[in-house]
Amino acid sequence: MNRCIATVDLMEEERRPYQATVNDEGMYDHARAVAGAMLGEGNVKVTGPIMAAEDFSYCAQRFPGAFFMIGIHDEAMTTGVHPLHSPNFVIDECVLPVGAVFHAAVAMEYLNKHATTAM
Questions:
Q1: Which of 3, 12, 37, 81 sees the fewest Cβ atoms within 10 Å?
Q2: pTM over 0.85
Q3: What is the model's pLDDT at position 102?
Q4: How does DSSP assign 57-101, residue by residue?
């Protein structure tokens, strides 16, 4: 490689690497059902696994969780679609209320399904 010398420091001594983010199957099914009811099944896209790590993984180790993404592509926007951490990423802010309502609906439906009646 052009006779270069490089080193890689994975910071294992100073900082723990992120764990793999793995969805809880029950919570995934729940979030997907809420999304289908809220947005219509045709607007729920299931993608394959991705090789990514998130600090969310630490929460999902302690509590059932599901990691999902909210689509933000708007054909009227001329910026194209770029990954979240790209300097070219532009968010269509019209999706923010949908994302907020979806997160709240996932929580509310979960609590409704798992509510216990007081005696």
A1: 3
A2: no
A3: 96
A4: HHHHHHS-----------TT-TT----TTSTT----GGGHHHHHH
